[in-house]
Design a protein that fits this description.
50% of the residues lie in helices and 11% in strands. With 371 residues, the protein is of the alpha/beta class. It has a six-stranded parallel β-sheet. The structure holds fe (ii) ion (FE2).
Length: 371
């Protein structure tokens, strides 16, 4: 059996003011928002709500310890609703605060503590990448385990996801590039997942088309062209979130997690490093079915031959973000065996969604090509 569902109600706000008028956020609400996002808020709109800026608790990617520190600060307070306005990191962290219990966070992520929803959760993305607003996944670096782990539970679904393109207007070009490439990878990994079905592939294809057509325009007109395309990219990232929320992500994400956790590389950028090499490996192992139909679709979209799709993708993505080799992040050749072991032993949730099986030798070979 293959399933498809869209869980949160998706709402489209015309502006930030429209959003605040609809929700009337007050003192019984918990709000996660960065300083950058708060600059968009109309004056006095938070009306004594408890506001958490996660950057006060950690730098870089979110960890279990950071969540413990926030939870400790909130001890003794109760909240009616949880809001989060931010990138995937902020949304992923906020999801945990809609649960009855979240500490010990390591135990929650390792399945020793049940995930039970306690209060409504409203998520507002401010990047065009993670799709976290429509998925039931929260991803953290678990400090003592040395890698990122995803917790997937229906208790983590938002009740409402609200799309406000205005909030993306001041996204720096590098963040725009990394987050939209992440969304493209969500669309592609979910398309070739064995859990994909006709409904998930509809959302995957729509997301790919919007993102790649946008990239073609940026490649011709320059990076400033992205501004008028932001509503399209925001919608594409939500579409991709719906697709991978149902069909899953796979090896690109699995291979990127050790890099992200050990070298503090932002999620979208770490995925970008792995992306085309993983797909070239799939193609060399088994070229049929969803991978072949993906390549045919991309060849038409990118005006190239089917066999040149990944080279053409690399060229196009090069207009959006510089791609680095692993040593540029401080990775040593010795690390590659350790990364491979982490992927094979701790990322089985993702590796189960691979287009075709990748064993330890195949994973190590991908890392070596990127070294
Ligand atoms: Fe991702």
């Amino acid at each position: 059996m293959k399933d498809f569902a869209i869980h949160p109600k998706i709402r489209f706000a015309a502006s930030v003011t429209d959003f605040f008028q609809s929700y009337n956020i007050g003192s019984s609400d918990l709000v996660f928002a960065s300083r950058r996002t708060q600059q968009h808020f109309p004056a006095d709109r938070l009306k004594n709500a408890m506001v958490i800026d996660y950057r006060n608790y950690a730098s870089g990617e979110p960890t279990d310890q950071m969540v413990e520190n926030i939870a400790a600060e909130l001890t003794g307070r109760s909240f009616r609703r949880v809001f989060a306005l931010g990138g995937g990191t902020i949304l992923d962290v906020a999801k945990l605060f809609a649960l009855k219990r979240l500490s010990p966070v390591d135990g929650l992520f390792m399945g020793e503590l049940p995930a039970e929803k306690a209060r409504p959760l409203i998520l507002v993305p401010t990047t065009c990448g993670t799709g976290s607003e429509v998925t039931n996944i929260s991803i953290l670096s678990l400090t003592k385990r040395g890698t990122k782990i995803g917790l997937a539970s229906d208790a983590l679904y938002a009740d409402e996801a609200v799309l406000i393109p205005e909030l993306l207007a001041d996204l720096p070009p590098k963040v725009f590039g990394a987050s939209s490439i992440d969304a493209l990878i969500h669309a592609i990994e979910s398309y070739t997942s064995p859990k994909a079905n006709a409904c998930t592939q509809l959302f995957s294809l729509q997301a790919m088309d919007r993102i790649l057509c946008g990239y073609k325009e940026i490649a011709v007109r320059g990076e400033a062209a992205r501004i008028s395309l932001l509503p399209d990219f925001l919608l594409a990232s939500t579409y991709a979130g719906i697709a991978f929320g149902n069909a899953g992500c796979a090896a690109v994400h699995a291979l990127s997690y050790p890099l992200g956790a050990s070298c503090h590389v932002p999620h979208g950028e770490a995925n970008y490093v792995m992306f085309t090499e993983v797909y070239k490996a799939y193609r060399a192992l088994h070229y049929d079915g969803s991978l072949q139909s993906l390549c045919l679709h991309l060849a038409a979209l990118l005006d190239c031959k089917e066999a040149a799709v990944f080279a053409r993708l690399e060229e196009l993505l090069g207009h959006i973000l510089d791609k680095k080799k692993l040593p540029a992040y401080g990775v040593t050749e010795k690390d590659l065996d350790k990364y491979t072991e982490i992927v094979m032993t701790r990322q089985s949730r993702l590796m189960a969604n691979n287009y075709t099986e990748l064993n330890a030798a195949a994973v190590l070979s991908i890392y070596k090509k990127l070294f």
